[in-house]
Amino acid sequence: MKTFYWLLKREMWEHRGGLFWAPVITGGVFLLLNLMGIIAGEVMGGRFDGRTNFIGNNMHLLGDAMDKQSMDKVGAGLDMLMYSPTMLIGMVLGFVVFFYCLGALYDDRRDRSLLFWKSLPISDTTTVLSKVVTATIVAPFIAVIVGTLTGIVLMLMFAITLSFHGVGVWHLLTLAHPLQVIANLIGSIPLYLLWALPSVGWLMLCSAWARSKPFLWAVALPIATGIVIGWFKLIGTVEISTSWFWRDVLARILLSVFPGGWYSQVPNLGGNDPAEMLSMLNVVNTYSVLATPNIWIGVVAAAAMLAGAIWFRRWRDDS
Amino acid sequence: MSAVITASSLSKRYKSSQALDNVNFQIAPGRIVGLIGPNGAGKTTALKAILGLTDFTGDLNVLGFDPRKQRDKLMGEVCFIADVAVLPRWIRVHEVVDFVANVHPRFDRKKCEAFLARTKLTPNQRVRQMSKGMIVQLHLALVMAIDAKLLILDEPTLGLDILYRKQFYQHLLEDYFDENKTIIVTTHQVEEVEHILTDLMFIRDGKIVLDADMDAIGERFIEVMVNADNAATARALKPLDERQVFGKSIFLFDGVERAKLEALGEIRRPSVSDLFVATMKGTYA
After folding, report:
1. Do B98 and A6 lie within an 8 Å CB cutoff?
2. How large is the ipTM?
3. Chain A residues lying within 8 Å of B82, measured CB to CB
4. Which of A104, A142, A254, B254 is 20 to 30 A (C-alpha) from B70?
5. Is A114 on the interface with B (CB under 8 A)?
6. In 3D, which of B181, B206, B220 has the Cα closest to residue B33?
7. What is the pLDDT of residues A190-217, one digit of tens each?
8. Contact map slice: A 50-109 vs B, CB within 8 A
């Protein structure tokens, strides 16, 4: 257990830039753009207009919220505002996890520091699992924390701006559900873990196996397979749906590291207004994904691919 | 005490070459063994097999473990420094010390810090900011603080200047080695290690061509400096090697009676490098 903790810490040391600074900087830039939008609105409009919308200015969300007379809808709009930075950070998280997994079992082979790590009494299984946990639990956890904090600062920023214009938003803010937002975001980490596993497994398998250019192998191999299947279909030798391959295989092994992909599996998603929309995104609702076979087939495939990655980690001999 | 390493019919084949060809050897505890061979002779492959880094055929027992199946347990008892600086470039001194201290049960943090205090390394320094000599100092400080039974050094001083090289072996002998430990070292800088070795193994084309302790080697191999008039007699005794220095011939004999040779001229103990050159004649031909 202690070894595992230190392995996670080791990953943090090596990837502090991607795991910690990338979300923090994204959050900071997000806040900065919104601040610039607010200031530009103040200067150009001379008076506050909640609908003024510059790039990155999410004020309109708040404006939308205040237009609605219903209190729930105001609250939902505010919640939406709080979610918005996490959504952006989630995109960044997808890229970070993608490249983290590709490098996880490759970089130390390339610079031969593998020989150092292998000289310690740590099994290859433990090492690989520590990297899986970093990608699927540690990374999204940091993203959620940073996203939530950014969301809170964003709300405060708008509230302060509005209060300069005599709009009493402080009581409106009490209509928001920050705890629910946080609970939903943290609650979606286990979903992220399960959903991202096939991508993490495939990328790590390529990372452990490729002698060079793991990115090329990881991406080119499934795409080439898809093209070959498409070609066979074209000349009529096989009767399988190619869209099935692209959507349920390729996208799952390459793109599932981007959070939120599981919504594609949730039935009846959508709504006419933020409140309805948000209640659909509620974590209790999204956990219905666990009833679909897609996610569990992915988990099983991931287990096989990770077993392969561990095997290659143990026996790949190119140092 | 039983052997630290027992290898029997150890073989390893790469696609194009036989790296190890049915090798048998035993290494006893408390020895410093030099594994010497030309490039591509199979030294590194042998070490990798011992460390469980590569697959092989045959039997290999290292400290009672099978390196193929019990590598992680084995690494609790074995340390190694490889021919290239293998510490990750991003890591800082304090991070690597913390990490090893927490994952290695036999690591003595105080010892390591005492070794580091003798160097110019600072806790926040990253490996990528260090010279090659400093990286080896750091690695050596880590390894010497681990109370391992077996230390494997694969060209540890390659690319170091002479100050670091001298210091390296000196520290190893003074602060690390004792009768419970075993060191296996491969190097091309034979002169540097020949005074510390207790055993010598020559490897050529995947085969062990010489495996003896230094005393036995002193008995078996004798170098004689012979004047030109005695040269023909000396040649008749089938020397391993002959070379000319200042108009005299120096012959290297394997297992010829000492008294016979003393009659021919001045005898002396051959250096390991001369012995090596004589044994490996024609390797690259």
Report:
1. yes
2. 0.88
3. 112, 115, 319
4. A104
5. yes
6. B181
7. 999 999 999 999 999 999 999 999 999 9
8. 108
